[in-house]
Design goal:
The structure is a homodimer. Chain A is of the alpha+beta class and about 210 residues long.
C-alpha cells in the first residue's frame, strides 16, 4: 500500500472534499494541518512539498498531487483506491457529475476565497455582500441543474459522488455567511442527509480545528 | 456517428478550449454562436438548450454537456471521440494535467469573467488592474508547476493536452490585458508554438467573430 499524506486546512472547502474522499474510500493516510491564517502555505517547509503553495496537497509515495478535483479523479482512477467510486460508470452521468462539481469548484468557490475577499475590501460587511452574491448565484445554478435530475439522497444517486464532495462544503460556507438555504431546497436536503453519513460526518471542519494557542 | 452541436461565444476562453478539442479530434459538428454581449445566453432559445444559462454547451444526440473540462473529459472517455487523447495514460501524469488545467479553470479564469469584472467596477482601468493581478498570479503558479517538468513543446508533452487547451486562451487573454508574458517564458513559448499547430490555429477567437451589425 502506498504511503499517503494529506496536507489540509480545517476550514478550507477544497480540503474537506479530499478528507471526505479519503474517509469514504477508507484510505489509510497521515494528515498534516497547514494553517492558512498564519500563511504556513507560503513557508519553506510547505513550499518544499508543494511549490505551487496551495492546499490541499496529497503526497503519494513522493508524488505530489494538488487541486482537489485532480486528487479525487486520481483516487478514482488508481486501482487500489478506486472503490467505492466517486464517479458513476455511464459517460453522460460522469459528465453531469463533473459539470456539477465545476459549478462549485470553478463557478463559485474561487470568488469566495480568502485572497479574493481581502482584495475586495477590508470591511467584513462588504466582503459578506460579495460572497453572498456569488454563493447565491452558484447554488442557484446547482439547484437548476438538479431540477433536471430525479430526486436522490445525493445529487445524482443515493451514494455520494465528486459533485456532493463539492456541494456540501459549499453549503456549509453558505450557512456561515447566512445565505438563506430555503431558496435551494434540494441542495439543503442533500446537505442535511450528507451530514448523517459517517464518511461526511468524520470529515467536517470542526473535527480538525487546531486548539487555540495560549 | 452522433449528431453534435457546439454552442459557443467567439471570445470566451472556455469556448475556445472546446473548439480546439473538437478540431484536434476532428469531430464533425455544427457551431452555433451565442452572443454574450447581447445576453443571448439568457434568451429563452438558449435556456431551452442549457437551463444553467452558460457557455460552452455541447449537445450530443440530445444530451446537454456543459462546463468545458467536463466536456473535454467526456470527449476523451467516449470511445468514438477518444483519439487522439487529451489526457495522458499514466495516472500521475493525468493528475498533473488536471492540476494545470484547474490552475487556469478554477484558479484564474473565474476572476476575470465578464460578470465579475462588472461587479468590481464600471471603470475599465480598475477592471484592468483587477484582471492583471489575478492573471499574473495564475500564470505564475502555472509557470512554477512547469518548472518541475521537462521542457516539451506543450505543457507536459509534444502534443497538446487538456492543460494546454486551458493555458493558450488564458495567455491570449493576458496579452489582451497587456500582462508582460516575459515573466512566464515557458508559458509564452508554448503559446507561440501552439498557434503554429493547425487545430489550435483553426480555433482562435478571430475566426469566429461575428460581422458587425449595421
Amino acid at each position: 500500500m502506498a504511503e499517503i499524506t494529506l496536507y489540509h486546512y480545517w476550514r478550507s472547502s477544497a480540503s474537506w472534499r479530499v478528507r471526505w474522499a479519503l474517509e469514504y474510500k477508507k484510505i489509510p493516510h497521515v494528515k498534516i494541518h497547514v494553517n492558512l491564517l498564519a500563511a504556513e502555505e507560503k513557508s519553506p517547509d510547505f513550499l518544499a512539498v508543494n511549490p505551487a503553495g496551495y492546499l490541499p496537497a496529497l503526497v503519494v509515495d513522493g508524488h505530489v498531487l494538488a487541486e482537489s478535483l485532480a486528487i479525487i479523479e486520481w483516487l478514482d482512477e488508481n486501482e487500489s483506491t478506486s472503490s467505492p467510486a466517486l464517479l458513476p460508470k455511464d459517460t453522460f452521468m460522469r459528465a453531469k457529475v463533473r459539470q456539477l462539481a465545476e459549478t462549485i469548484n470553478s463557478g463559485t468557490q474561487p470568488l469566495q476565497n480568502l485572497d479574493v475577499m481581502k482584495r475586495i475590501s477590508s470591511d467584513t460587511e462588504v466582503q459578506g455582500q460579495w460572497v453572498t452574491h456569488w454563493i447565491t448565484r452558484g447554488l442557484g445554478v446547482y439547484e437548476k441543474i438538479l431540477s433536471s435530475l430525479p430526486v436522490k439522497k445525493f445529487s445524482v444517486s443515493d451514494e455520494p459522488t465528486m459533485a456532493d464532495l463539492c456541494l456540501i462544503p459549499q453549503v456549509y460556507s453558505a450557512n456561515r455567511f447566512k445565505v438563506d438555504m430555503n431558496q435551494f431546497p434540494r441542495c439543503k436536503a442533500i446537505y442535511e442527509y450528507a451530514l448523517t453519513t459517517p464518511a461526511c460526518a468524520q470529515s467536517v471542519p470542526e473535527l480538525f480545528q487546531p486548539a487555540p494557542t495560549k
